[in-house]
Amino acid sequence: MIQVLDKSFEEFITRDEIDRKIQSLGKTLNETYAGKEVVFLAVLNGAFMFASDLMKQVDLSCEISFVKMSSYQGTKTTGKVEELIGLNTDIRNKHVIIIEDIVDTGHTIDKILSLLDGKDAASVSVCTLLYKPDAFTGESKPEFVGFSIPNAFVVGYGLDYDEKGRNLDAIYQIREAN
Ligand code: 5GP
Fold first, then answer.
1. What is the CATH number of domain 15-174?
2. How far is 113 from 40, CA to CA, in rounded Å?
3. Which residue of 12, 90, 125, 176 has the fewest C-beta atoms within 10 A of its own C-beta?
């Protein structure tokens, strides 16, 4: 058990399980996008660790750009989303893969997809480490999913609780008794 600020969490997905999943995600992406020009868009802040480890498994001809939407604070999804900043790569005729740490309600992804609309990408898909199907109310489900998880708050491996806990090297789930 660990403590982040006022909440306690227990280990939920180990570093080893994350490593193995990322290897298999990388393999899937290498097969799916073989011979294609790919642009990865990693969504900051949460996806920085996942993006870094995923990219090491990718052997495609690709670019990576880091983009940012509204930051998330506290233990509930705000639903409030700002514009996409940092997209300075030309995605015309490229296959875009958005790298997310977690897809919860799906609002962030829907917003990013609508902001990429009309930019003439060859295709746009989403690769997320974590996905909460029970919370999802979005339009498009992520194409590539590491782990589908229950609807409980998690931290670690890039994900924060009030900006803390991003540095944890495994994923921790909030304890019921909090
Ligand atoms: P959405 O609801 O739009 O799919 O997700 C919005 C954002 O909420 C995610 O990118 C992530 O930053 C945050 N989020 C959703 N669920 C969790 C969670 O369990 N833990 C943490 N740390 N962030 C979450």
1. 3.40.50.2020
2. 13
3. 176
